[in-house]
Write a structure and sequence with these properties.
Blueprint lengths: L1 H6 L4 E7 L4 E6 L4 E8 L2 E12 L5 H7 L3 E4 L1 H7 L5
Antiparallel strand pairs: 1-2, 1-5, 2-3, 3-4
């Protein structure tokens, strides 16, 4: 599953995984948007996405506010949120 998450990452930064481990949170650099995208062992479902926030220059503030709802946070953001990484 990790390979699928990172393969989908082109043009996006993987930020974290929600607490149910069913959605990956990505920062889309071109649109400066944070989105949640459904995934499972078969892949990432780009059609199953939800806009979380737009107009972000950096998703760090979002991670600080919502990091407790994530089961995993990418190491580049994990120190700022003070939440667990696995």
């Amino acid at each position: 599953m990790a390979e699928n998450l990172f393969r989908y990452e082109e043009g996006r930064d993987l930020v974290g995984i929600d607490d149910e481990a069913q959605r990956a949170i990505y920062y889309e650099t071109a649109s400066r948007s944070l989105v949640a995208v459904q995934f499972d062992k078969h892949g990432v479902y780009a059609g199953e996405r939800e806009l979380l926030q737009r107009g972000l220059d950096d998703p760090t503030a979002w991670v600080e506010a919502h990091g407790s709802g994530l089961v995993w946070i990418h190491p580049r953001y994990s120190n700022t949120a003070g939440t667990r990484t696995q």
